[in-house]
Amino acid sequence: MAGHVHIIGGGLAGLSAAVELAGGSEQVTVYEAGPACGGRARSYHDRQLDCRIDNGNHLLLSGNPAVYRYLGLIGAQDTLVGPQRPVFPFIDLADRLRWTLDLSRGRVPLWVLSRRRRVPGMRLAELRGLLALMEATPDMVVADCLPAGSLSRRLLEPFAISVLNTMPDTGSAALLGAVVKESLARGGRNCLPRFPAIGLSESFVDPALAHLAVLRAQVRTGSRVSAVEFTRGGPVTALLLGTERIEISPDDTVIMAVPAPVASGLLADLPGFSAPDAFEAILNVHFLLPQAPVLTGGLAQARFIGVVGGISEWVFAKDRILSVTVSAANRYAGRDLDELAPLIWNEVRAAIDPAATAPLPVALPPLRIVREKRATFAATPAQDRLRPGTQTMLPNLLLAGDWTATGLPATIEGAIRSGAAAARAVHARKGVPGRPG
C-alpha cells in the first residue's frame, strides 16, 4: 500500500522533494507556514516601492547540476539568463580600479596568463590559495589558505564572503573548497553567471507549484506545523497544526524541510538530533530609479558588478531596480539602516556611473531595505559539524534544507540537493526505484 509523504516547509528544499516525488505512488502534501512558498528565494510585490522585487539576490552558476535538474523537471530551465561568457565585472572602491574577470571556458586556466582577463595586481603564486582551499581539512578556516595579495583581496575573500555568508577568518575552508571544486576547478563552462530573467518566484516557485498541481500534489499555505508527535525509537505518529491533528501511519513519511531553528524547536526531544545554532544575516537594499539605466561594456553584458572595499558586495541591475547584497551582515548589526543606505547608494553610483550613458541621481532614490537576520547558518567548521544528514533515528522522518549536511554552504544548489536526497530516501524506504540522479 502506497504511503503519504508529508513535507513540512515550502521553501526550495521542500519543493525540490515534492517535485521529485509527485506523480509517483505516494500521495504528497506540502505544509507551508507562510502565505507563499519559496522561503528565502521568492518574489513579492513591495508596497513601499509599488513594484515586484526578490526578497534576496542569488547569483547561480551554469554548473549547478541540482538547480538545472529541478528547473528541468518543472519546465523552467529557460527562465535563467546571463552572459554567454564566464565574465564577472568588479570595481575596487579604494582606487576606483575596474576590471572584468574573464575565465577560460575549459579546465586549463589560461585566463591567469592574460593581464586583461585576470585580477589586477595578482601574482601567479597566489593561485596556490585555490589549491589549499580544495585540500582543506574540516577544521581549517578560509584565512588559513589565502596568501596575501591582490587575488585574495580582490577575488577570493569577496568570493568567500558571498558563498559562505561568513567572514574568511571564521568561515570553513572545506566548504568553500567544495564550491571551488564544482566551479573554478571545472572551468568556465561551469561558471557562467545565471539569474532569473524575471524573478525568483517566476523561476523557482510558480512553475513548481503549477507542476505539483498537475500531478495532484497538495500544497497548503498558511499551515504551520506546531508539533511532531513520535514514540521513542519508533515512527512519527502525528502532526499538529494548531487544533488540527494529522495521523501519520508507519507507511507514511515525513520530510522536515524547515529552517534549522524551526526544526530544532520541533525536534527538541529527538535523541541524537543536532542542527546549526549560530547564524549570519544578509542585507539587501533595493533602489527604485525613475527609469532603467542604459549600461555599456561588461556591465551591460553581465547585468551585475562585484564591489571590493566597501559595504556593498554585489550590485544587480534589474530594469528600474538596482539591488545590492551585503553578506555576512552581522558585522553591521549595530549600524542604523538609515545611516547605511546613503553610504551604499554612493557605492552604487561609483560602480554604475562609469558604465552608464547617464549618471545616476545624486539624491537617494526610493528604497527598500530587507535584513534577513538568520539568512543562513554561520558556515564555520564548528557549525558545519552540527549539520545532520537526511536520515534520523525515526524510521519515517527525514530532513532537508540547506542547513543539513549537503557538503555545500547554505546555497540554492544545496537546498535543492537536500530535497532530492530526501526524495531518494523515500524511494529507498519503499523499495522502489527513484528517478535517476
TrEMBL record:
InterPro entries with a match to the protein in the record: Amino_oxidase (IPR002937), FAD/NAD-bd_sf (IPR036188), SQase_HpnE (IPR017830), Zeta_carotene_desat/Oxidored (IPR050464)
Highest taxon of source: Bacteria
Gene3D superfamilies for this protein: FAD/NAD(P)-binding domain (3.50.50.60)
Amine oxidase domain span: 12-426
Family matches, as Pfam families: Amino_oxidase
NCBIfam families noted in UniProt: HpnE (TIGR03467)
Name listed for the protein in its UniProt record: NAD(P)-binding protein
Species the sequence originates in: Komagataeibacter melomenusus
